[in-house]
Amino acid sequence: MGLLPELVALSKEWLGFVDDPNPVSEDDLLRLEAILDKLSVLRYELGPIVGLKFEDGNTDPPRGDQSEMRDRISKRFPMLGFYHIPETVTTDFSRTGVMLGDAIDDILDITRELSDVVWLMEQERPIKACWDFGFGYDHHWRYHLRSLLWYLEMRRFEAP
Question: Is residue 100 part of a domain?
């Protein structure tokens, strides 16, 4: 629980960065990568969520209009879009395929999860906020985060 201030500050930093109405520059994408890295490190510093008593509140965080959010994020990150990523990473090369990733969807999903964390903290539900952050990362948005980081890294070296 000692990481709550950092969790809230980093979640708000993400939301502020994503919600800025101005389109990002290529240089801003390095800041995006840095925030993603910090989120990943923070998850591991938080430790296991098994020890946290799950709080099941009566009220769930509000959900905004997904299509409006996607449109806003698309305008903020006009140079990002679809990318390909290995279906599996394995030593059995006969089993690998290619999947289609979507950077805007990655950012949208992470944004939704971190919006919930901030909302829960504003509702004075810190244990639930930590639990949601840890569980959401472990079971959902870690994949989005890592895929997005890989995409951002690789596009720097892509031929124009």
Answer: yes
CATH label of the domain that carries residue 21? 1.20.120.1550
Cβ atoms of residues 143 and 109 within 8 Å = no
Q: What is the pLDDT of residue 56?
A: 64
**pLDDT tens figures, 40-64:** 999 999 888 766 666 666 677 777 7
- Strand ranges for the chain from DSSP E: 82-86, 98-102
At position 28, the amino acid (one-letter code) is: D
Could you tell me if residue 59 is inside a domain?
no
CB under 8 A, 24+ apart: contacts of 17-21: 18/73, 18/76, 18/107, 18/111, 19/72, 19/76, 20/76, 21/72, 21/75, 21/76
Q: Which structural domain range is residue 82 located in? A: 4-52+64-155
Domain assignment present for 57: no
The per-residue pLDDT of the chain, averaged, comes to 88
SS3 86: strand
pLDDT tens profile 99-116:
899 999 999 999 999 999
